Amino acid sequence: MPAASLYPEPVMRRMEMPTARAGRADGVAGADTAVAATSELKIATEHVSISYGDKVAVRDVSLEVRARSILALIGPSGSGKSTFLRCFNRMNDLIPGAKVQGRVCLDGEDVTDPDVSVVELRRRVGMVFQRPNPFPMSLYENVAYGPRRRGMNDRRKLDELVETSLRRAALWDEVKDDLRRKSGLALSGGQQQRLCIARVLATEPDVILMDEPASALDPVSTLRIEELMRELKENYTIVIVTHNMQQAARVSDVTAFFTMADDRAGYLVETGPTGRIFTRPTERLTEDYISGRFG
Ligand SMILES: Nc1ncnc2c1ncn2[C@@H]1O[C@H](COP(=O)(O)OP(=O)(O)O)[C@@H](O)[C@H]1O
Ligand SMILES: [Mg+2]
Fold first, then answer.
1. Whose CA is nearest to atom 8 of ligand 1?
2. Which residue in 16, 62, 155, 178 is a FRET match for 219, CA 20 to 30 A apart?
């Protein structure tokens, strides 16, 4: 496997799928939840339901996300994971007919309140999409875009922020000589996704939402993104949607399993430390899903 020479032994070990046997949780990234459980509460949703017109897409979801942890949302296609993810930075506001009920608290403040500045909210809660979407401009301008829009004009400060963001996104060394010459579109897929992560980091967020951020990437680029996520969680809170259960097992501290009710509305079946969800789920539905009997 080509990745073997690029990644140190512990990362390779985390690539293995944890099996349903007890006692396997120790090799899984999600096993270190003791740290996450003691950090402060970053996000809490309370009875969140989301509908499109009169079709309910997400029903009554209450869950918590600790600061500097990674929450993975898993579940079959159509179970409302993306819809739910979008409630954290009010991206559903952009969809005509979408309606969000319940509370979504960020640092204790309900962000569904109409008085909340959506621009500021989306700065604090950045988003990375499935398809990398760099702007058709230079690497530098891609990263400087957000800070410029917030009014940062000081050349030296911008240079610094661009460099810091690219370093944090593990892209700096690969692009530092081409910053102003090369277009964001000229990078490889994996580099484009790291550029998009750098663009989010440049707005100095607290929370990063990622909707299947690696599903369009090759396996080596995927591992780089996963490794980057583990680095980023030292400073940021991350919520990731993934249909790749091995990925959820490798990167996340906590996993939330969604599925669909008889009326097709998505709901949360159970949530818990990733190591436990993948080895000893409480619910039969979860067990069926992670063992591949459904979805
Ligand atoms: N913009 C939209 N307008 C109408 N229905 C939508 C929209 N986005 C998603 N849905 C519906 O909401 C449900 C949940 O979708 P989604 O959140 O994308 O699920 P997942 O990410 O788990 O695959 C699906 O039935 C989907 O068709
Ligand atoms: Mg989705």
1. 83
2. 178
pLDDT digits (tens, 9 = 90+) for 214-239: 999 999 999 999 999 999 999 999 99
Homologous superfamily of 34-132+206-290 in CATH? P-loop containing nucleotide triphosphate hydrolases (3.40.50.300)
Give the pLDDT confidence score for residue 39 in this predicted structure. Answer: 83
C-alpha count within 13 angstroms, C-beta hemisphere, residue 180: 1
4: pLDDT strictly greater than 80: no
Q: Which of 232, 235, 222, 215 is nearest to 74 (CA)?
A: 215
pLDDT at 226: 96
Write down the residue that tokens 């000229």 correspond to. 186
- Which-ligand-closest: CA of 83? 1
Q: Is residue 268 within 8 Å of residue 71, measured between CB atoms?
A: no
- pTM value surpassing 0.90: no
Domain boundaries, the chain: 34-132+206-290
Where on the phi/psi map is residue 60: left (φ > 0), alpha (ψ -120 to 50), or beta?
left
Identify the residue whose C-alpha is closest to ligand 1 atom 24. 78
Mutate to test the pocket of ligand 1, among 79, 83, 209 (most ligand atoms within 8 A of CB): 83
Closest atom of ligand 1 to CA, residue 95: 1
pLDDT in tens, 20-58: 333 333 334 444 444 445 689 999 999 999 999 999 999
How many angstroms does the Cα of residue 265 sit away from the middle of ligand 2?
14
